[in-house]
């Protein structure tokens, strides 16, 4: 009996007790566990520790030799059996990104101990960490120091306390950096946890939960019952000692300037998502930098004091394009700017230590975004811990200039936001408020510590809560030598800026191509907003055929871009641009594309009229013969308009109204004629259909008779009409709004008329009251007659005698008479 033992095995589905003996081999024990949990021999792994270290392998050793005793807890993970000990050191794949340096130097003998500890603690093959995390996990991270000539008394090969390498989490070293570093990097924090004598045996980065644990059957559910097993622990807020991102860098000033242009032109605040990549930040040991390459501005309702996001139908397309370009969403940015002096361009300094750095509402929004972008981590039982998502605020600095400040919120704030336990205060933006428990939700107590006036640590209930306990500040920088993932000039309009008149359409694309001075096609299309327009436009979306171009932009391969340029999709885009904004030209003549009174770059292609959208044959351009003709015909006209123009006498050609009237009359006649022709054609087609209703239609024969050129022409005509209508409505609203909006000048006369009507109504009401009073006697007389009584009728006063003759006139009250003099 003394040799019989019971081993507890904890798995994601629950815990089970497995009977065994001390002399039982590990292979036999693993077979028992597999049968008990329903796994095959290779479908699970068992570890002595929760952090997946000291794996028990199928071997001939007994449980007593493995130091497994009665009542021990083992941990089962259904992730497959990992490789041998030498292969578990690195789960990460080799790095193909050029932003990460080589790791060949990290395999030295001095770093083998640290690397092996980190690798064993991170051995979770089913969790795919970010590439930068895999890279930093291989690094040694030690801070090497040179030999001190005054304090070191040893040879060149020796080390002492004055020159021995420091650990990456050394707080004294970080505090003496310039500027001082208040938060160590996340990977340095992991090295601190996995260091020491236990080598991280009891390390487990568990996410905070503010919800009641499910599955407790000993009592009714909340609010009828709760116990210590299912009740979440109280939270005491502490300033986080580490941060997941240590530096934020914009590739160039152009990215930030274009984002700020919206505020400069409208005075309203703006919000956008940052797209970039994560790289190593070498100024801090084992640190991570977020590099921003582009800003996407989603649909939003902006005002001078707030920004409200609306549903974005292009969100999935943006994520797909960014992934194919090697980018990802790394954060969000918003403005909080108030102009102080428009003459010198200064702004007010509002966010400081006397007010707040981030408001409670902004902290909640940042926590919401960070919960959406969790950081994969092999040390966490949940597979994720914290987030690399950053927050950037464009606000006024101490010098009254625009500054960019970077922040993150702590993991405690993320948990409070995720479980809906944190609320903002209406009157104090710098204060948050921890919710109280209700019948619908149990909220654990939240505390924070502060010092009183005597220097004593006092614990306060977080109602309200200073948000400084939830904020982690991050340095935001711009490089001395600008970097460009995308082309710097020219610039395609930014999405969702219709309020500024900056629209993304084919007219804007034609203008953009006309402004391109470079003859390199890759430089023309290397614009994040342009690529997004090509994928999401409604006329001709290229979502399924733009992959080759995105690869060319990602790898900066001009030959690959030229290959895509020869595709049918780009030819159609060029044709649409020529129809809307100008004449399509060869690769060396892009300067002529896009609108303007310039002569077409080439006369060897068909072109459309701007008035009637008629597609004209090459070589039929007409530009007018003199100054007046040029003013009347700012662009080449088609044969129809030219015929009308030549019918105008010379004396009338200088009158634009006469020319315009003849054109409009001609166009009306043409529309009538076209309508009649369509009606005749329809009748003829119907008659033919009646005669041939018994014949079977041969689609193979008829398909060859379709005039594809006419179909393409009709498509371009309809598209041109659409843009013409939209431009006309826009011009009416901007320049002649009185034709479409009501005449507000008529409101005062209408108000006066209503006032006079009200006065007449009151006078009529008074007159009706007088008549009612005078008819009361008549009503009494009628009642007496009906009752059988014979009352004497009221005597009317005799009319006064008219001594001067004339007919009497009835007075307005009906009872008196008067004479008309």
Keywords:
7-stranded mixed barrel; 5-stranded mixed beta sheet; alpha+beta; 821 residues; 22 helices
Report the helical percentage.
25-40%
| SS summary, helix count | 22
Q: How are the strands of the biggest sheet laid out side by side? A: 9-11-10-14-19-20-26
- Unreliable residue stretches: 80-125, 582-604, 622-637, 643-659, 801-821
Q: Which percent range describes the beta-strand content?
A: 15-25%
Structural class: alpha+beta
Shape estimate: extended
Give me the Rg, rounded. 42 Å
Largest β-sheet summary: 7 strands, mixed, barrel
Please report the distance between the alpha carbons of the first and last residues.
Answer: 142 Å
Kindly state the number of beta strands.
Answer: 30
Mean pLDDT value: 77
Protein name: Nuclear protein localization protein 4 homolog
Organism: Coregonus suidteri
Pfam families: NPL4, UN_NPL4, zf-NPL4
Keywords: Metal-binding, Zinc, Zinc-finger
Care to describe what's here?
With 821 residues, the chain is α+β, with helices and mostly antiparallel strands. The chain contains 22 helices and 30 strands. The strands form 10 sheets. A 7-stranded mixed barrel has the order 9-11-10-14-19-20-26, surrounded by 5 helices. A 5-stranded mixed sheet has the order 2-1-5-3-4, covered by helices on one side. Strands 7-23-24 form a 3-stranded mixed sheet, with no helix packed on it. The model is unreliable at 80-125, 582-604, 622-637, 643-659 and 801-821 (pLDDT under 50).
